[in-house]
From TrEMBL, chain A:
One Pfam entry name: Dak2
Domain of life of the native organism: Bacteria
The species this protein was found in: Sporolactobacillus shoreicorticis
Protein name: Dihydroxyacetone kinase subunit DhaL
Keywords recorded for this protein, A-Z: Kinase, Transferase
TrEMBL record, chain B:
Record PROSITE patterns: PTS_EIIA_TYPE_4
Gene this protein is translated from: dhaM
EC number(s) on file: 2.7.1.121
Protein name: phosphoenolpyruvate--glycerone phosphotransferase
Domain PTS EIIA type-4, chain residue ranges per copy: 1-128
NCBIfam families on file: dha_pts (TIGR02364)
Species name: Sporolactobacillus shoreicorticis
Record field: catalytic activity: dihydroxyacetone + phosphoenolpyruvate = dihydroxyacetone phosphate + pyruvate
GO-annotated molecular function: phosphoenolpyruvate-glycerone phosphotransferase activity
Amino acid sequence: MAELNQVIGALNHAADIIENNKQHLTELDGAIGDGDHGINMSRGFSFVKKTLDEGSFETAADLFKKSGMALVAHVGGASGPLFGTAFLRASMTLKDKTEITIEDYINLLKASIEGIKMRGKSDAGEKTMLDALIPAYEAGEQAVQQGKNTVEVLQAVKEGSEKGLKETEKLVAKKGRASYVGERSIGHQDPGAASVALILGAIADYFSEA
Amino acid sequence: MVGIVLVSHSRKIVEGIRELAAQMAKDAPVALAGGTEDDRLGTDMNKISNAVHDVYSEDGVLVFFDMGSAYMNAQMALDFLEEDGSKVEIVDAAFVEGAITAIVDSGLNKSMDEIKADIASMKLGKMP
Ligand SMILES: [Mg+2]
């Protein structure tokens, strides 16, 4: 699926998409949370870009680890430890690989889910980033089982995340600042889930267009 | 003396708590991690690591936090700590009351265990 320079390309593209959607993410968070999600994510991913730009990476694990640390250190909200942990867990699955297969991608999504559950003491249905990530992983896993090609699997992951994001409108927030408004969070999309969908969408688009 | 670290989304909150506690305990080692690195509301893992580092000793460090991401970032900071992590503990307590009790206790040279016993009744179930 991807050599290291393509992984860097895909993550840079994801960072650009986050930057372009900064205002949208902030508005989603403003409706039910503290309104800092767009700024936090754009700031964190600008440091990921800087890391990718200035660093040299021996392995895919190294690349994900350093990107994860950039997120942990610079996001400044719950998204920092959560997205950071996702990247660090992804890194652990990649070990000394210098190329990522579509199966590796699905595996790292799974590891990210476990990491986020552990760090956030959270689970599906609590109106969090997991509600985009879990359906994304499941759709991708299914597409792999069905023998779909790389671009099709990436597309399935993207669509899974978007469907999951849409579903978060119906959920009552149980975690984070949005849990303070409880029932009033119904009808709004979760900003963390929106970020997940943007990132997974950007990765799919990057490889579809390549 | 036991080091006390205060983690809050707001720099003003931790500065206020330290100011309040200083009326009773001027010498206790207290370090603040309030706000983000670019001084917005939020918490920052590196600030927390640095704060722990500043007040670390063999006597231990207690980390108090306000809410939400403060706990997660404190955990991350402990995961990546250079110092002996077994001597650093995040505690579940009402932030203002717990921190002030601990700061005064530390100033009286109480041990980690003694301080923890003194704040045991102030738990809020903040650490799921
Ligand atoms: Mg927020």
